[in-house]
UniProtKB/TrEMBL annotation:
This is Histidine ammonia-lyase. InterPro entries: Aromatic_Lyase, Fumarase/histidase_N, L-Aspartase-like, Phe/His_NH3-lyase_AS. CDD domains: PAL-HAL (cd00332). Pfam families: Lyase_aromatic. PROSITE patterns: PAL_HISTIDASE (PS00488). The lineage of its organism: Bacteria, Pseudomonadati, Pseudomonadota, Alphaproteobacteria, Rhodospirillales.
């Protein structure tokens, strides 16, 4: 498939592997979906269906086809009710609650489930795969409530909303419009699917919701590494900090590659300060001096996170699996999302630590006890009006609140297994809760980053006005970045509400608006 760090224009589902970038490009509507025409792939899919049909005819006993589900495995379904069983599965799981997934998130879920079904272990028909693929072409996304999965019988309840949409039940979004699924299918000229015996189980019995959410989280975490690195560089300059903390020789002596790269990026941002530059202190406080050691942990874990997420993304995480080579049905527990759960729990901890780092950097910048000659709360008001102006005081309070909430949400979800479903599912992953927490922590941390962008830009303008830093001492990248920020953030001389600016900057961060360092540099 595509190279990991390039945006594809078409993502093809078939025998090939998908990358996180493929999923996110589809989710964000930057790529089209296609189902492979490859003869081997189509034959493999056909073989699975044919084998299941024969198995049912010749042996007449298959889990989830002629039995009840889960703990109800001992219940035998008589042949005349076998065809009705899949619709029961999708319907009794139609009990999701909570917020609805966004359209991009729902698209990511569709993509991840389609990828898994294409691995050829689930015994679904090519018609099912074609219809899922057609959802992309017609911009149809199931409306999926995000709560109700324990992440270890797969994401049964949220994925039931995909099964329902395919058969023309419940609601979908289509080109920005909320419609009953049957109406949307009709509008698109598509026929609702009649689910074959194992197909509802195949759609629902997997880890695709948590995996999709973590693909989105991964891309955001990657950008967070970069933006927090740039913020650190600007905070260091604005505080008259010491560039020597980022010397390559230091990082060769403790050579975690991600950490070294973050340090090198900060060092290159500070390179133009020049020999005449005098730092205010020999050693800066840890939120400056140890920034590579905080951001670097996330940077160093990203390759592992990628490997784990992409293994899950390209896996058959259904049960039972159909081995078409040996013509056997394999009963297992691949719907268990333990790996994704751990990535989500781990990633959210590392992200919240970056929120905390930036919160501490802001504390240094706004406080005249630490900021080496900048005004209180970085207010740019002239002296006679300084008594009524409070600059970034409330923004700092907001940052404290967002940081506290991010830190609070780092409670691991994966250790809170509950035995459920009459003790059949007596150990579960809670990976979907972990993934949702991770996204919430990201959102809060991106808000902190937005506030820090206002802070460092304000501090830099003040320094340039003071003349304690000159424009020549900023490298081209830093100067261009500050100019770009200046178009989004007006200088704060008189107090004004900053909500609009904050929201705008949060959206900019979400869109990875500023190209920072080299693409994908938070990883390799
Ligand atoms: N995940 C279960 C199947 C299942 C499906 C739906 C349920 O409600 C419960 C269990 C298995 O494969 O064993």
């Amino acid at each position: 498939m595509t190279n990991n760090n390039k945006t594809p224009s078409t993502v093809t589902f078939g025998n090939n592997r998908l990358s996180i970038e493929d999923v996110v490009a589809l989710a964000e509507g930057r790529a089209k979906a296609a189902l492979s025409d490859d003869a081997d792939f189509r034959q493999r899919i056909a073989k699975g269906v044919d084998f299941l049909d024969r198995e049912l005819r010749d042996h007449g006993h298959i889990y989830g086809v002629t039995t009840g589900y889960g703990d109800s495995v001992l219940r035998r379904v008589p042949p005349h009710l076998v065809d009705e069983l899949p619709l029961h599965l999708s319907r009794f799981h139609g009990c999701g609650l909570g917020a609805e997934l966004s359209v991009p998130a729902s698209r990511a879920v569709l993509a991840v489930r389609l990828a898994s079904l294409c691995s050829g272990y689930s015994g679904v028909s090519i018609e099912l795969l074609e219809l899922l693929n057609a959802f992309f072409a017609h911009d149809i996304t199931p409306i999926i409530p995000e709560e109700g999965s324990v992440g270890a019988s797969g994401d049964l309840t949220p994925l039931s909303y995909i099964a329902a949409a395919l058969v023309g039940e419940r609601e979908v979004m289509m080109g920005g419009e909320r419609l009953p699924a049957d109406a949307a299918l009709q509008k698109a000229g598509l026929q609702p699917l009649t689910l074959r015996p194992k197909e509802a189980l195949a759609i629902m019995n997997g880890t695709s919701v948590m995996t999709a959410l973590m693909c989105q989280a991964f891309m955001r975490a990657q950008y967070l590494c970069q933006i927090s690195t740039r913020i650190t560089a600007l905070a260091t300059i604005a505080l008259h900090g010491n560039p020597a903390h980022f010397d390559a020789r230091l990082f060769a002596a403790k050579p975690h590659p991600g950490q070294a790269r973050i340090a090198a990026n900060i060092a290159s941002d500070l390179a133009m300060l020049g020999d005449g530059y005098q730092p205010a202190r020999l050693q800066d406080r840890y939120s400056i001096r140890c920034a590579p050691h905080v951001i670097g942990v996330l940077a160093d874990m990203m390759p592992t996170f990628r490997t784990t997420l992409e293994t899950e993304l390209n896996s058959a995480n259904d049960n039972p699996l159909i081995d078409i080579e040996d013509e056997t049905i394999l009963h297992g527990g691949h719907f268990y999302g333990g790996h994704v759960a751990f990535v989500a729990d781990g990633m959210k901890t590392l992200i919240a630590n970056i929120a905390d780092l930036m919160d501490r950097q802001m504390a240094l910048l706004v406080d005249t006890k630490f900021n080496h000659g900048l005004p209180s709360n970085l207010s740019g008001s002239s002296t006679d009006r300084a008594s009524i102006n409070h600059g970034l005081k409330a923004v700092q309070i907001g940052v404290s609140a967002w940081t506290a909430e991010a830190l609070k949400n780092t409670m691991p979800a994966s250790v809170f297994s509950r035995s459920t479903e009459c003790h059949n599912q007596d150990k579960v992953s809670m990976g979907t809760i972990a993934a949702r927490d991770c996204l919430r922590v990201l959102q809060l941390t991106e808000q902190v980053a937005a506030a820090l962008l206002i802070t460092v830009r304000q501090a830099m303008v003040l320094r340039l006005e003071q003349g304690s830093i000159t424009r020549d001492q900023l490298g081209d990248d830093i100067a261009a970045f500050l100019d770009d920020l200046g178009r989004d953030i007006a200088f704060i001389d008189e107090d004004r509400p900053l909500e609009g600016t904050l929201r705008h900057l949060v959206a900019r961060i979400g869109a990875r608006h500023w190209p920072l360092y080299s693409e994908g540099s938070a990883e390799k």
